[in-house]
Amino acid sequence: MNHSVELSLSEEFDGSTAVACVILGLSFLVGAPGNVLVIWTILRHVKQRSHTVVIILHLAVADLLVLITLPLWIYSLVHTWVFGAVLCKTLVYTVTVCMFSSIFLITVMSVERFLAICHPFLMMRWKTKSNIKIYLVLLWLLAFLLGVPALTQNLENTDGNVQCFTRELNSDTNTIIILCLETLLVFIVPFIVLSICYCLVAAQIKKMSFNSKEKSMVLIHSVVIAFTVCWLPYHVINIIDLICILSWPDTDDDCVSKPIIFIVGALVFISSSVNPVLYAFFAKNLQGSLEESRLVRLFKEIATNTNKVRELAVQHTLNHLVVELCYTNKLALPCQILKQSH
């Protein structure tokens, strides 16, 4: 078995290389300025930042760090890797850590929404500046730890063409361990958490008099969906590689064709540039002013919406508790009032 993990794009065909450069170039031109604008807008104009806005800020930083490496990858695709082994390892490690942290940030955003709607009192205890800082630090530390295998990156010289797109592993065991950890911790667990959170949130919203179609709610859902669409094929290929290694350990044939790997790599990089486009789309119908742009209004609406959701959830929980105590005869007076109202 060829012990390598394909990081993104293939330089095998000239046509594929040209398409790769176009996709990466567009991702850089759209995503880099877009994420810079998001970071500047939040830091400069949004003083009251909800947990969701803070997570969006960290997500924009992670995406920007990925995107600013793209010019070097484009140059490498067109010519050859001339930046040395140290920079190769550094860039691959940076991209890996930031992409993993993005997945964790999306997951935390969904958990935060779940707590705000389904467990508002727990959310009120959790929602402190010190707590969110601790959670974000732990999140980034986990991403740094999971990115360590990327430091095994070595340059590959094929007929004088040096590239930095694969990392060679010295045994099937190491490959299996890395693929299992990456698939489990960076895909299966977050995907299960996302699915459970959104199912429970959807069920709870049906019980509450709350408009789930509000712009900020739809925006958060769109970010999660876009991220899932971009990353799902990558992890599916990881699972296919794992199955191939376990089933046919002595074969040197690739289990997934190069064109498919190329498309999947493109989707992964697109995921780092799509969020500013979503923010701009959802902000276009908001009324701006000379003092604040539409993007500022959008992030402020997200913060306001988070507080509104939590307050409505608290009210719903308290009403449910009163009704429950009433009909168990633990609160006589509220019970009489409630029965008279019905």
UniProtKB/TrEMBL annotation:
InterPro entries: CCR1-9-like, GPCR_Rhodpsn, GPCR_Rhodpsn_7TM. Residues 34-279 form the G-protein coupled receptors family 1 profile domain. It is found in: Cell membrane. One of its GO terms (molecular function) is C-C chemokine binding. The chain crosses the membrane at residues 17-43, 55-78, 90-111, 132-151, 176-201, 222-248, 260-282. GO terms for biological process: calcium-mediated signaling; cell chemotaxis; immune response; positive regulation of cytosolic calcium ion concentration. PROSITE patterns: G_PROTEIN_RECEP_F1_1, G_PROTEIN_RECEP_F1_2. It is a multi-pass membrane protein. Gene3D superfamilies: Rhodopsin 7-helix transmembrane proteins (1.20.1070.10). Pfam families: 7tm_1. It comes from Astatotilapia calliptera (Eastern happy). The lineage of its organism: Eukaryota, Metazoa, Chordata, Craniata, Vertebrata. GO terms for cellular component: external side of plasma membrane. Belongs to the G-protein coupled receptor 1 family. This is G-protein coupled receptors family 1 profile domain-containing protein.
